[in-house]
Specification:
With about 110 residues, this protein is mostly helical. About 70% of the residues lie in helices and about 0% in strands. The protein starts with a helix and ends with a helix.
Length: about 110
């Protein structure tokens, strides 16, 4: 098995550069491999939403959005069961500067 942690990290980094599109495809493919993968990915992204970085939170929300639209149903179910971090993302992301991208949040909801 390939270690995808660096890919997860790249997808949700705090840098202002956008996440490359192929990274979303890798995350989506990973979510379909097993229920456990979906749960691991859901847990990881939820933890990344609790950071105090606007760029990091926004990039994580974009990953969540791609996975909700194209990922496995197991990922969506896990996210529904643990949605409090998605709902509170603007609070975490805006603690050091203004959160830009509440439109992304509205899209996910």
């Amino acid at each position: 098995a390939v270690n995808l942690y660096p890919m997860f990290k790249k997808a949700t980094s705090t840098s202002p550069e956008p996440t490359p599109g192929y990274v979303y495809d890798i995350l989506i493919e990973f979510s379909f491999k097993s229920q456990k993968n979906s749960a691991v990915l859901c847990d990881y992204l939820n933890r990344r939403l609790q950071r105090h970085s606007t760029h990091g939170v926004l990039k994580t929300l974009k990953c969540v959005n791609h996975l909700v639209q194209r990922g496995s149903r197991h990922f969506r179910n896990c996210l529904r069961e643990n949605e409090e971090h998605v709902k509170s993302a603007p609070n975490f992301g805006s603690q050091h500067n203004a959160f830009q991208g509440t439109a992304a949040l509205e899209e996910i909801r």
